[in-house]
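Handout, page 2. Input:
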Amino acid sequence: MREEDFLTEFNREFRKMYEVYNRAVSEHKYDEAIRIGEEMLEELLKVVKERVFSKFTNPVTKEVVRGIIEYHERSLAYIRGVKEATTDIPTLYSFEAKERALEAISKNVQELFSFTLGALLALTEASVRERPKGHEIV
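Output:
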């Protein structure tokens, strides 16, 4: 799939998923929101690893991106831990933990989506500039 096609599809699909996540949060369906948030972070991390990190060759750039990946993987592990720990606990007792997990999800998703989209935009632009004359997209 061409970079620009992937970028368009990624942006559209992720925004749809984020709308579903926001709806679940606003309707106080916290378990559903946590599940969706976990899926969003997993998908973002997959895209960063496969479509961003893999394209960089500079060791400094790779190290910075590796740090970003590791930070968000730790956050995902925290969210999974909260999800598992609150599975069999009544909402009265698990509400605060789920609320903190949702705050972490929102923060991490916004940060990682912004980073991912920015990196994909830059990589897409670079790939277009590298095309031979006559293969430009109009």
